[in-house]
Amino acid sequence: LKPVDFLAVMTTAERFKRRLNAAKAIQRRVRERRSTGADALRPMPTPSRSREDTIVAGMRLLEQRLSALDQTPEEIQGDGACQFRSMSYQLFGTQEHHAHVRATAIGHMRGAARDVFSVYFDGERSFNAYLDDMSAPTTWGEELTLRAAADALQVTIHVLTSEQVNWHIKYEVTSPLRILFLTYVSPVHYNSVYRGVFGRSD
User: Fold this and answer.
1) 187 and 63 Cβ atoms separated by less than 8 Å
2) One of 5, 53, 79, 168 is an active-site residue; which one?
3) Is the pLDDT of residue 46 over 70?
4) Is position 79 annotated as part of the catalytic site?
């Protein structure tokens, strides 16, 4: 396994692709080093370490949390659309409708909920630039797109993360039609949770 430089700022398309490849390499490394903790839900104290090692430890902790919750991870393709692929899998049992999920979330922000989301940006031009960029098929989704998807699709989204604290995040709606479960390896990749029955609210 080649060493991965996670300290570079991933701003260009070239660096973006490198980051995706690095995330895949870390996933392989975690699978090789998988172990079971005595208390899978509790973060373990760790010494100072590199960003790569922190991500590796986070992935292991996330796997332990899923195991303790009797959940099975579902690996999602890492092509820049992993957040939307994860939601597509939960909604439809396949990753392939990720473009529809993305378009629904962006359309909601651009239309009915424009006033709700535009306040996070410095003017209309900045917000429109964000929406145009987020519409691209390989732009990474983030907190706003999760909120928009939850509202537009009338679903509650649970995100189980590899963070040491506050690792369970909920994007709730009133009377959800579905309940979705995603996982997030901070700060690089979304996966999904295999539940057998996809996102039933009961």
Assistant:
1) no
2) 79
3) no
4) yes
